[in-house]
Amino acid sequence: MASFVQYLGHAGFIVQHGGVKILIDPWFHSAFLHSWFPYPDNRHLLSEVRSERFNYLYVSHAHEDHYDERLLRMLDRSVTVIAPKYRSKGMVRRFHGLGFGNVIALDHQESHELTPGFVATMYLDTSHKEDSGLLLDMNGFRLLDLNDCNTPMSELPKQVDLLAAQFSGAMWYPGCYDYPPEVMQKKVDSVRHALMDTLYRKVKLTNAKAYIPSAGPPCFLDPVLERHNDRQRTIFPQWEDVADAFRKACPHVEVLRIYPGDSVRIEGARPVVDRMSGARTHEDVREYRQRRRDEWGEFYAAPESPITSDEIAGYFSRLQRRNNHLLQDFHKDIRLSSGGRLWSIRLGGTAEPLVIEGEEQNEPEYTIVLSPRVLRALLDGGTGWEEALLSMRLALHREPDVFDLRFMSLLRYGDEPVQTLQLVRDQSVTETIERDGLRMQRFCPHAGEDLTHAIIRDGIIECPRHHWQWDARTGKCLAGGNLRLRVEVLEVERTDPEIEEGA
Predict the structure, then answer these.
(1) Same domain, yes or no, for 315 and 260?
(2) 303 occurs within a structural domain
(3) Closest CA to 10 of 24, 1, 498
(4) What span, in angstroms and rounded, lies between the C-alpha atoms of 364 and 407?
(5) Which of 8, 415, 434, 475 is the most buried (most CB within 10 A)?
(6) pLDDT, tens digit, 9 for 90 and up, residues 123-172
(7) Which residue(s) pair with 111 in the sheet?
(8) How far apart are the C-alpha atoms of 217 and 186, rounded to whole Å?
(9) At 106, is the secondary structure helix, strand, or coil?
(10) Which parts of the chain have pLDDT scores under 50?
(11) β-pairing, 36-37 with 219-220?
């Protein structure tokens, strides 16, 4: 029986080998407070996915453009779920909660035979983040689906025949920040360059022979968010915007530019593209917006309800109590602005957060502007900060303009204290490496990337994942955030000049 990889759009695939089918990251409905939609529209494939019988289901992580709960509730519960074994056990809990009884949790680099000759191996982001990718070996043909996962580069598998990985952005920075246009464009260009550089490294380190552009970009149908569809001035390019740069950086890699419904047949060791008749290759956003009006309009359906200072104080008190391990020696003043009201919030240490409405304490380091609908969803647990930030329905200002890992981690991961606890552990890891006359900590203090592959030149150490930079002599962070790198300059062994002369 033939082996094939059918593309469902974004990061979604159906892979078949040896009569076994695995459904991967199917996304069809609006995500992140009804702000993200697949691009191009893949809804014409929904009935096929709903009616198909799959042997296995794999969802890489909990972001709603991968974990489409509305779609998952439509699937046959007898399917076997391959779930990443995160420290929080979050994905396993989610699937059990949906009624999937057969869940196999795989740890980093752990394998499971789907059928003879068809083996799945899990690859995790081993830092505090919960992302995963999957390597599928089909009688020696190796498909690596990394979606937007950043497994440490030193642990990526080698000799990959077909790589599917992110090329477009999937975060709120810098788009949610209130930068002037010229500053915004510089930051956008920097992020786009970093994303592509990371992709080139993944391609080269895995020795990928062919590449499928995937995991982006989304489309924003709510007219309020229209500006984020600008493919030149945002971190959400289409493949055609970056294809020339990829071709120059990876000239020997075949690019399989496929669209929702297209398939890749595996003939021996060679992938062959089969086009779906009438497949959507682009969208008129105005028409797309009209087709999905009821869905993006759901964000505005419920009436706005009043918010009290007691609710905000209670929310941040709970968040802080659950993450005291993260907040030792931590102090930060933030401001929430919502519906014409202001709250000043002082966070830090083990004390209860101070929340005062309409009165300034100190000049806030972070200001967050959000609608009462978004704030209500956060306070009631209908969404988390990660999802709210990704929705692009917030505006942010920070002074100084420096990324604060602990504060953002409190917001993004505070509902899963296992993740913030791992962040604290990551900061205390003492393992070191020696390179270029330096002894430095092995793992990046930001997101845990293995600095074995760091760029070291002109007295600067640069992380290969998010491109943070440090002074190679002092460890001071020069770009990216405010975390120091533990580094020391090694003594250079001097040769005795008399012996050298006599040699």
Answers:
(1) no
(2) no
(3) 24
(4) 13
(5) 8
(6) 999 998 999 999 999 999 999 999 999 999 999 999 999 999 999 999 99
(7) 121
(8) 20
(9) strand
(10) 494-503
(11) antiparallel
